[in-house]
Amino acid sequence: MSTRIEKSDQEWKAKLSPERYHVLREHGTEAPFSGDYVHTKADGTYCCAACGAELFSSTTKFDSGTGWPSFTEPVNQENVLLHEDRSFFMRRTEVLCRACGSHLGHVFDDGPAPTGQRWCINSASLDLRPEDQKPDQES
Ligand code: FE
After folding, report:
1. pLDDT higher at 136 or 16
2. CA dihedral 27, 96, 139, 19 (to 10 degrees)
3. pTM, to two decimals
4. Is the confidence at residue 39, as pLDDT, over 90?
5. How remote is the C-alpha of 133 from its chain's centroid?
6. Which residues pair with 44 in a beta bridge?
7. How far apart are CA 49 and CA 128, in angstroms?
8. Which pLDDT score is estimated for 89?
9. How far is the CA of 76 from the centre of ligand 1 (A)?
10. What's the confidence (pLDDT) of residue 131?
11. Which of 20, 34, 95, 113 has CA atoms 20 to 30 A from the CA of 28?
């Protein structure tokens, strides 16, 4: 998989907290109800915690009751990458940031209208950029 933003493991380790490194770069999952954004209702754009790419809008966030931030769709399908995940004896669809290849979460087809999708994303993979704030995406 080639991505626009390439960093070595050492560079990611230096940039990210241990928890974020584990989720984003080692395909980890935070414990349910442990993340910062589970109950957040603020307006803004949820960006990749590794590279700043815009991923999800607060307008598509819903309370799934699962303990992870959940969205009905990404801001743009171009900003995410889907990958079949067969770990833990399940077949799931992993969601990655297309720009940097970091792990975000999984997408399921049991979500609410209008898409019927549930994008189940780790808080540790996200940074909420409030509505009125300028982007600081890496190039
Ligand atoms: Fe990213």
Report:
1. 16
2. -30
3. 0.92
4. yes
5. 19
6. 130
7. 9
8. 87
9. 13
10. 86
11. 113
Q: What is the mean pLDDT of the chain?
A: 94
Q: How far is ligand 1, taken at its centre, from the CA of residue 52, in Å?
A: 6
Ligand 1 mean position, distance from CA 61 (Å): 19
Residue with structure tokens 């954004």? 37
Kindly give the distance from the C-alpha atom of residue 132 to the centroid of ligand 1, in angstroms, as a whole number. 21
Distance in Å, CA 95 to ligand 1 centroid? 11
- From CA 55, how far away is CA 45, in angstroms rounded? 7
Domain ranges of the chain: 9-130
Look at residue 87 in the predicted model and tell me its pLDDT: 87
- How far is 117 from 90, CA to CA, in rounded Å? 18
pLDDT beyond 80 at 139: no
Active-site amino acid positions: 120
DSSP string, 47-76: EETTT--EEEEGGGEE--SSSS-EESS-S-
**9-130, CATH topology level:** 2.170.150
Confirm if 113 and 96 have CB atoms less than 8 A apart: no
> Which pLDDT does position 2 carry in this prediction?
64
Q: Do residues 16 and 50 lie in contact, with contact meaning Cβ atoms separated by under 8 Å?
A: yes
